[in-house]
Write a structure and sequence with these properties.
mainly alpha, 2 strands, 11 helices
């Protein structure tokens, strides 16, 4: 869909090189190994990588705007910031990357889709590093403030943890407790045990 390639030709290519791909579920294909992906990317010129990345970014931005809740929107919520970061590191569109990850209206969608703050926090953390690399003090400060905001909201979202617990997602509920420290963590764990 992203490259507007014929579906049958794509399936034939995947069948031909099936040992390169892992299929976690029907109709989904993932390159089997990071080294192979790196090798294939090395075969492309920087311009080809950039062109492909821009095509993917445009597709994912449209998916976010459409809000259909499909696989491409979920992928965009988790990974669009990474694709934008690659462009920024190639000295293209830094402003777009910075504005995207620091857009607080996006965070609730990411949190709802993932049931955690990791996707939002990861983008903002990458923004801190990229702004610092560029010696952009204002952007660095803005991203640090947003990281603190996200952390504050996560520490005040114990209700979400109990919702996860009640839905049976014990592993994620415990993982979400990692942001709490000392006495707060102890109290939260006692409350979770009581809830169970």
């Amino acid at each position: 869909n992203v490259l507007v390639e014929d579906e049958e030709e794509t399936k034939a290519l995947i069948d031909r090189y099936s040992k390169w791909f892992n299929s976690p579920s029907p109709g989904k294909y993932v390159l089997y190994h990071d080294r192979l992906r790196t090798y294939l990317l090395q075969k492309l010129s920087e311009h080809e990588v950039q062109e492909l990345n821009e095509t993917l970014i445009s597709y994912l931005e449209k998916s976010l705007a459409d809000e259909k809740g499909d696989e491409s929107e979920l992928y965009a919520l988790e990974h669009l910031s990474t694709h934008m970061l690659v462009e920024s590191q190639l000295d293209n569109n830094y402003k777009r990357f910075h504005e995207y990850v620091n857009r607080d209206v996006l965070w609730p969608r990411q949190i709802k889709a993932s049931n955690e703050y990791k996707w939002s926090q990861n983008g903002v953390q990458q923004s801190i590093k990229e702004a610092a690399r560029r010696h952009n003090e204002d952007s660095t400060v803005e991203s640090v403030v947003n990281s603190v905001k996200l952390n504050y909201h996560e520490k005040n979202a114990s209700k979400q943890i109990f919702e996860l617990l009640n839905s049976g997602d014990y592993e994620l509920a415990l993982k979400r407790c990692e942001v709490f420290k000392d006495e707060n963590l102890f109290v939260l764990l006692i409350m979770m045990i009581h809830e169970i």
